[in-house]
Structures are given as C-alpha cells and as structure tokens.
Specification:
Blueprint: H1 18-22, E1 33-38, E2 48-53, E3 57-62, E4 68-74, E5 77-78, H2 94-97, E6 103-108, E7 129-136, E8 139-149, E9 155-164, E10 170-179, E11 185-195, E12 205-207, E13 210-215, H3 218-222, E14 240-246, E15 250-255, E16 260-266, E17 273-281, E18 284-292, E19 303-305, E20 310-321
Antiparallel strand pairs: 1-2, 2-3, 3-4, 4-5, 6-11, 7-8, 8-9, 9-10, 10-20, 11-18, 11-19, 12-15, 13-14, 14-17, 15-16, 16-20, 17-18
C-alpha cells in the first residue's frame, strides 16, 4: 500500500550505532546537513533556499516560492526537471518563468488554463514563512506557512511540512490547508511533480495500476500506445497529456540504464484526480506526474473548505534501486 511504513535505509548515525559513530565524527555535517542561503546571480538573485542533505537524498527548497522542492538528487544524480528558464525571483508570464522543479504547487485559486486566471494559479509565487528548520539524528524537518488572503475576501493558510529520515531514500511533503476566515471558501490544488534527465531517459517506463487513460488532445490520442514509454528527444515534438484513473494512488518511473526507480505516492482520498504530462521535445524533455483535487478543462470544479476547517494532503517521493 502507498502509505505503509517501510524500513528506513540504515543510517551511519543510527541509534544502535550511535556511540561507535560518535567517536568517528566531530561534526554532524559529515553525516547530513541543512544550509540556508540566498542566491545572488542573474534572474535568481534574491531567492532564498534551504539546501537539505540526509546523506543519500539531497533536496533544495524554495523559501521564496511556496517552499516548493526545487531539485532532488539521489546519491549525486539529478531526478528533477529544470526548464531552460531556470529559477527566477521575478514574476511574469507562465511560459517565461516556469522552472519545472521537483514539486511545483498549483492553486489555490486555479489550476490548468482557465479564462481570467493565470495558468496554474498563484500559490507558487507566494513566499513561505519558515517556522522550523532542523537537521539532527532525528531527521531533517522544514516547516513553513504560505498565506493566501484578500481584503474583504479569503483568509487561507497552507501549513507545509517537509521531512526525511537520515540516510533515507524518501522525502515526504505534508500540506495542511486551514480556513482562518468566517465563511466557506473555494480552493483547488495540483502538485506538478516534474522528472528530468538522467532519471528520465530513453527506455524508461512509467508504471502504475491504471483503470483508464483519457487523452487530452487528438495528438495525445494518436500517441496513446506510447503513453508509458519514454522515447529519445525529438525536435519540436508536441507534448502529450492524459487524465488517468488509478487503482492505487502511486505511480513510478523505472530506468534500467541507471537502475533506479522514482516513485510518487500521495493521499488519493483528497487528491482523486491525476494528470500525466509528457514532453519528449528536445530541450524541453520532461515528465509531469500531477495528483490534483479536480479535473482540468471543462471538468474543472472547486472544492470547499469551511470556517476553521483543516484539510491535509500528502506526497511521498522515493528513489530506490530496481529489483
């Protein structure tokens, strides 16, 4: 099951071996670390970053952009997609600023393309207030709050918690949406999880228990037989998008070239819809795995959150060896 507790990778700083290991290191940063810094060059100037390394998995968090996961590495190899735009501090048109990143959170006002709203909403552009940043033998814990408010309007707070055990192959993201206002509010969420080279490469395959795959466009329908297969990059190849109905809220990408499996598990009860976006275009080579609260296009609908209500969502990102 996607949320069954699995044994942790044995840490070099495990409780059982703590006394022995303590004699071999003088600083815990030899084992794991959490560093906070501000980027200073080009369009990224001013972005605040939390750089987290548990000894096996390294993940960068964008404090300036909703505490989203910028990049993910496993044993030094990149897992995430970063677009040619790179990471930028400024805001602008979506296609000129979309960086990809390991997790790009869309909402709370809109997801997808809808008239009168920016593409994929405004949540990602909101800075987080960090309330906890800890790295110790208990693990790495980062917590923050992202506000979405309006005068005479909504008063929503997204409380985000990202954590990983020392030496683990997994990073878990838990969001709790809170309505601090005095009226019922609309919301929507889509987690744009983006995989890139070398995790994404020719011959890799998408694995999931799929009950139905509905192509979004005529081109996607024509390419349906290759929906789960990663091909070589093709110049100016049109993207494909599919709306998937999954038996279990878990999907993975398997790459035999590097003998790795990237897995995404999520809270399917609160994220009942799933979108697969695949771009095999040269220079825009990416796979998007996107659990969400709503269908897109004509099927879009808002969810409701009552005053003082709290609603939680979870993602679990793992990188494991192929069996």
């Amino acid at each position: 099951m996607p949320w069954r507790q699995t044994p942790n990778v044995r840490s070099v700083y495990s409780a059982a071996g703590r006394r022995r290991v303590d004699a071999k290191i003088s600083n815990f940063q030899q084992v794991a670390s959490l560093r906070r810094y501000t980027l200073t060059e080009g369009g990224a100037n001013g972005l605040r970053v939390l750089d987290c390394d548990n000894g096996k998995i390294r993940f960068l968090l964008n404090e300036s952009k909703a505490l989203d996961i910028m990049q993910l590495y496993c044993e030094g190899k990149n897992i995430s997609f970063v677009s040619k735009n790179g990471f930028k501090a400024e805001h602008g048109d979506f296609l000129q600023r979309f960086e990809g990143g390991m997790v790009y959170t869309c909402g709370l006002d809109s997801v997808g393309a809808r008239e009168g709203f920016p593409l994929h909403g405004t949540l990602h552009g909101r800075a987080a207030k960090i309330t906890r940043a800890e790295c110790s033998n208990r693990g790495i814990f980062v917590e923050g709050e992202i506000s979405d408010t309006a005068l005479f309007g909504k008063n929503l707070l997204l409380k985000r918690r990202i954590y990983s055990d020392i030496g683990s192959d997994t990073v878990t993201l838990k969001d709790t949406l809170v309505n601090l206002g005095f009226r019922e509010e609309d919301y929507c969420l889509l987690y744009h999880v983006n995989v890139g080279y070398p995790m994404l490469d020719e011959g890799a395959e998408i694995r999931a228990e799929i009950e139905e795959a509905i192509p979004r466009t005529a081109w996607a329908k024509e390419r349906a037989a290759q929906r789960s297969i990663i091909t070589a990059p093709v110049p100016e190849e049109e993207e494909t998008c599919y709306f998937l109905r999954l038996k279990e809220p878990c999907v993975s990408l398997e790459n035999k070239k590097i003998q790795k499996r990237f897995s995404l598990a999520y809270s399917g009860d609160m994220l009942p819809e799933f979108v697969q976006w695949k771009s095999m275009a040269s220079g825009d080579y990416a796979l998007g795995l996107e659990p969400c609260t709503t269908k897109l296009d004509d099927g879009f609908h808002y969810s409701k959150i009552a005053p003082n209500e709290e609603i939680s969502f979870r993602l679990r990102l793992s990188v494991t060896p192929l069996d």
